[in-house]
Amino acid sequence: MSDLQTAILEATRPLVKTFSWLKVAFSTVLYTASISLVVYFSLLGTLDWLVVVVIFVASFGYLFLRETRLAKLSAKIMEAQRAYVMTKFENATLYIPMLDRVASNVVLRRAALFITENGLFLEAFSQQNYSYVPKQSITVPYGKDFQIIDLSADAQKGYMVYHAKLLGSDYLFYTCIHAGLTELIQSFIDAPQGDH
What we know:
By secondary structure, this protein is of the alpha+beta class.
Protein backbone atom coordinates (compact mmCIF):
# COMPACT_ATOMS: atom_id res chain seq x y z
CA MET A 1 0.00 0.00 0.00
CA SER A 2 1.41 3.40 -0.99
CA ASP A 3 2.09 6.20 1.47
CA LEU A 4 -0.66 8.29 -0.14
CA GLN A 5 -3.16 5.42 0.20
CA THR A 6 -2.27 4.96 3.87
CA ALA A 7 -2.54 8.70 4.51
CA ILE A 8 -5.98 8.89 2.83
CA LEU A 9 -7.33 5.96 4.85
CA GLU A 10 -5.92 7.38 8.08
CA ALA A 11 -7.43 10.81 7.35
CA THR A 12 -10.81 9.30 6.47
CA ARG A 13 -11.24 7.04 9.53
CA PRO A 14 -11.86 9.86 12.03
CA LEU A 15 -14.43 11.47 9.70
CA VAL A 16 -16.74 8.48 9.39
CA LYS A 17 -19.01 7.21 12.12
CA THR A 18 -16.75 7.44 15.15
CA PHE A 19 -17.80 6.59 18.67
CA SER A 20 -19.07 9.62 20.61
CA TRP A 21 -19.75 9.58 24.35
CA LEU A 22 -21.62 12.86 24.00
CA LYS A 23 -23.99 11.36 21.44
CA VAL A 24 -24.56 8.26 23.60
CA ALA A 25 -25.27 10.43 26.68
CA PHE A 26 -27.62 12.79 24.83
CA SER A 27 -29.46 9.95 23.10
CA THR A 28 -29.77 8.01 26.37
CA VAL A 29 -31.45 10.98 28.06
CA LEU A 30 -33.72 11.48 25.05
CA TYR A 31 -34.66 7.78 24.85
CA THR A 32 -35.23 7.57 28.61
CA ALA A 33 -37.50 10.63 28.62
CA SER A 34 -39.48 9.44 25.59
CA ILE A 35 -39.96 5.87 26.78
CA SER A 36 -40.77 7.05 30.31
CA LEU A 37 -43.52 9.30 28.96
CA VAL A 38 -44.98 6.45 26.93
CA VAL A 39 -44.88 4.14 29.96
CA TYR A 40 -46.37 6.88 32.19
CA PHE A 41 -49.35 7.45 29.90
CA SER A 42 -49.85 3.77 29.16
CA LEU A 43 -49.95 2.98 32.89
CA LEU A 44 -52.51 5.77 33.45
CA GLY A 45 -50.30 8.21 35.31
CA THR A 46 -48.13 5.94 37.44
CA LEU A 47 -44.40 5.59 37.00
CA ASP A 48 -41.99 4.12 39.51
CA TRP A 49 -38.42 5.44 39.75
CA LEU A 50 -37.16 1.85 39.39
CA VAL A 51 -38.84 1.62 35.98
CA VAL A 52 -37.10 4.85 34.93
CA VAL A 53 -33.72 3.43 36.06
CA VAL A 54 -34.34 0.22 34.10
CA ILE A 55 -35.30 2.27 31.01
CA PHE A 56 -32.16 4.41 31.44
CA VAL A 57 -29.84 1.39 31.78
CA ALA A 58 -31.46 -0.42 28.85
CA SER A 59 -31.27 2.71 26.66
CA PHE A 60 -27.64 3.30 27.58
CA GLY A 61 -26.73 -0.33 26.90
CA TYR A 62 -28.47 -0.35 23.54
CA LEU A 63 -26.99 2.96 22.38
CA PHE A 64 -23.48 2.11 23.60
CA LEU A 65 -23.50 -1.20 21.72
CA ARG A 66 -25.00 0.40 18.60
CA GLU A 67 -22.42 3.20 18.46
CA THR A 68 -19.56 0.76 19.08
CA ARG A 69 -20.80 -1.56 16.34
CA LEU A 70 -21.29 1.26 13.83
CA ALA A 71 -17.79 2.62 14.46
CA LYS A 72 -16.24 -0.81 13.84
CA LEU A 73 -18.49 -1.50 10.85
CA SER A 74 -17.40 1.70 9.07
CA ALA A 75 -13.76 0.64 9.25
CA LYS A 76 -14.64 -2.83 7.91
CA ILE A 77 -16.70 -1.41 5.05
CA MET A 78 -13.89 0.93 4.01
CA GLU A 79 -11.35 -1.90 3.99
CA ALA A 80 -13.74 -4.24 2.14
CA GLN A 81 -14.37 -1.61 -0.54
CA ARG A 82 -10.62 -1.03 -0.95
CA ALA A 83 -9.92 -4.76 -1.22
CA TYR A 84 -12.77 -5.18 -3.74
CA VAL A 85 -11.51 -2.37 -5.99
CA MET A 86 -7.89 -3.53 -5.82
CA THR A 87 -8.94 -7.09 -6.66
CA LYS A 88 -11.35 -6.18 -9.47
CA PHE A 89 -8.88 -3.75 -11.06
CA GLU A 90 -5.37 -5.11 -10.73
CA ASN A 91 -3.95 -1.91 -12.18
CA ALA A 92 -5.71 0.28 -9.58
CA THR A 93 -3.15 2.36 -7.73
CA LEU A 94 -5.31 4.38 -5.35
CA TYR A 95 -8.66 3.83 -3.62
CA ILE A 96 -10.42 7.00 -2.43
CA PRO A 97 -13.39 6.50 -0.08
CA MET A 98 -16.36 8.73 -0.83
CA LEU A 99 -18.32 10.19 2.07
CA ASP A 100 -21.82 11.54 2.51
CA ARG A 101 -23.57 13.60 5.18
CA VAL A 102 -26.68 12.27 6.87
CA ALA A 103 -27.95 14.91 9.28
CA SER A 104 -24.83 15.76 11.35
CA ASN A 105 -23.10 12.42 10.69
CA VAL A 106 -20.51 11.72 8.02
CA VAL A 107 -20.88 8.21 6.59
CA LEU A 108 -19.25 6.14 3.87
CA ARG A 109 -21.03 6.15 0.55
CA ARG A 110 -21.65 2.93 -1.33
CA ALA A 111 -19.27 4.32 -3.92
CA ALA A 112 -15.60 5.20 -4.19
CA LEU A 113 -13.15 6.82 -6.52
CA PHE A 114 -10.12 4.95 -7.74
CA ILE A 115 -7.20 5.74 -9.97
CA THR A 116 -5.40 3.56 -12.50
CA GLU A 117 -2.79 4.44 -15.11
CA ASN A 118 -5.79 4.92 -17.44
CA GLY A 119 -7.42 7.62 -15.32
CA LEU A 120 -9.98 8.34 -12.60
CA PHE A 121 -13.05 6.16 -12.09
CA LEU A 122 -16.13 6.10 -9.87
CA GLU A 123 -17.07 2.66 -8.57
CA ALA A 124 -20.67 2.27 -7.32
CA PHE A 125 -21.07 -0.77 -5.06
CA SER A 126 -24.11 -2.98 -4.69
CA GLN A 127 -24.02 -3.85 -1.00
CA GLN A 128 -26.67 -5.45 1.13
CA ASN A 129 -27.73 -3.42 4.18
CA TYR A 130 -26.15 -5.76 6.71
CA SER A 131 -23.14 -6.83 4.67
CA TYR A 132 -19.95 -4.86 4.47
CA VAL A 133 -18.50 -6.79 1.53
CA PRO A 134 -19.55 -5.51 -1.92
CA LYS A 135 -21.10 -8.21 -4.12
CA GLN A 136 -20.95 -6.39 -7.45
CA SER A 137 -20.37 -2.90 -8.78
CA ILE A 138 -20.65 -0.53 -11.70
CA THR A 139 -17.66 1.42 -12.98
CA VAL A 140 -18.02 4.91 -14.45
CA PRO A 141 -14.90 6.47 -16.02
CA TYR A 142 -14.16 10.15 -15.55
CA GLY A 143 -15.33 11.96 -18.66
CA LYS A 144 -18.70 12.31 -20.36
CA ASP A 145 -20.77 10.41 -17.74
CA PHE A 146 -18.87 11.49 -14.63
CA GLN A 147 -17.31 14.91 -14.16
CA ILE A 148 -16.17 16.80 -11.10
CA ILE A 149 -17.31 20.39 -11.57
CA ASP A 150 -15.85 21.95 -8.44
CA LEU A 151 -14.09 21.02 -5.23
CA SER A 152 -13.53 23.06 -2.12
CA ALA A 153 -12.19 22.44 1.35
CA ASP A 154 -14.35 22.65 4.45
CA ALA A 155 -11.42 22.79 6.87
CA GLN A 156 -13.71 23.30 9.85
CA LYS A 157 -15.38 19.93 9.24
CA GLY A 158 -12.22 18.28 7.89
CA TYR A 159 -13.34 17.19 4.44
CA MET A 160 -13.33 18.20 0.78
CA VAL A 161 -16.67 19.00 -0.85
CA TYR A 162 -17.10 17.86 -4.47
CA HIS A 163 -19.79 19.07 -6.84
CA ALA A 164 -20.02 16.64 -9.74
CA LYS A 165 -22.24 15.46 -12.55
CA LEU A 166 -23.04 11.76 -12.74
CA LEU A 167 -25.02 10.62 -15.79
CA GLY A 168 -26.34 14.17 -16.19
CA SER A 169 -27.51 14.61 -12.59
CA ASP A 170 -25.93 16.71 -9.84
CA TYR A 171 -23.86 14.58 -7.49
CA LEU A 172 -22.45 15.85 -4.20
CA PHE A 173 -19.87 13.90 -2.23
CA TYR A 174 -16.99 14.37 0.18
CA THR A 175 -13.50 13.00 0.79
CA CYS A 176 -10.87 13.63 3.41
CA ILE A 177 -8.64 16.67 3.13
CA HIS A 178 -5.17 15.70 1.95
CA ALA A 179 -2.92 17.95 -0.16
CA GLY A 180 -1.65 15.09 -2.36
CA LEU A 181 -5.17 13.83 -3.02
CA THR A 182 -6.48 17.31 -3.81
CA GLU A 183 -3.66 17.92 -6.32
CA LEU A 184 -4.29 14.54 -7.95
CA ILE A 185 -8.05 15.10 -8.31
CA GLN A 186 -7.46 18.67 -9.51
CA SER A 187 -5.20 17.32 -12.28
CA PHE A 188 -8.16 15.33 -13.66
CA ILE A 189 -10.45 18.37 -13.48
CA ASP A 190 -7.92 20.58 -15.26
CA ALA A 191 -7.08 18.03 -17.99
CA PRO A 192 -8.87 18.49 -21.31
CA GLN A 193 -11.80 16.09 -21.57
CA GLY A 194 -12.93 14.22 -24.64
CA ASP A 195 -15.77 11.75 -24.89
CA HIS A 196 -14.20 8.93 -22.83
